[in-house]
Amino acid sequence: MIYVFNLRHFKWLIMLLLLILILLLFVLSGRWFIRQIYPLKYSDYIFKYSKENQVDPYLTASIILVESKYYPNAVSKKGARGLMQIMPRTGEWVAQQLDLEGFHPDYLFDPEINIKIGTWYLSYLMKQFNGDLTLVLAAYNGGQGNVRAWLQQRNSNKENDLEDFPFRETRQYVIKINRVYKVYKRLYG
Known about the structure:
Family: Belongs to the transglycosylase Slt family.
Mean pLDDT: 89
CATH topology of the largest domain: Lysozyme
Structural class: mainly alpha
Number of strands: 0
EC number: 4.2.2.-
CATH architecture of the largest domain: Orthogonal Bundle
GO molecular function: peptidoglycan lytic transglycosylase activity
InterPro entries: Lysozyme-like_dom_sf, Transglyc_AS, Transglycosylase_SLT_dom_1
CATH class of the largest domain: Mainly Alpha
Organism: Koleobacter methoxysyntrophicus
Low-confidence stretches: none
Number of domains: 2
Shape: elongated
């Protein structure tokens, strides 16, 4: 028996190919769309200084997204500056530790300097809090003095889940960074 390829079969084949193409475009554009929501701008600086300071670059990217949405001239209500929202006093102190001479707080608007100082500070906090990411993020947001005070007054048998941490904003910040961090690792890692 000879199989005859007719017009009806051709239409089904074209429809199947179109469906496959649409699904492929959806998958590819879906990833593209998600990368627009979770960008990786300044990746050269992020990877360079994260590696130099032994910080996961996707953690750095997560902090930048949450803190400034990648806007290098961002200024918070409290005066934190730049991509990683570094307070001028913290920036000055870290600049001294890094022997960056002639530091001025306006330098925090420079993406490279901001990321260099921010990743060094994250690394410093990692050492101060034995790599406990919850405590590191709480200290980055709420201040290491506040985290130390909280650790001293709470029951030492509890995990560092921040449920009883006195600053609601800091608790929410830690949750948000962890959520964004998971997305960055899945999307780019």
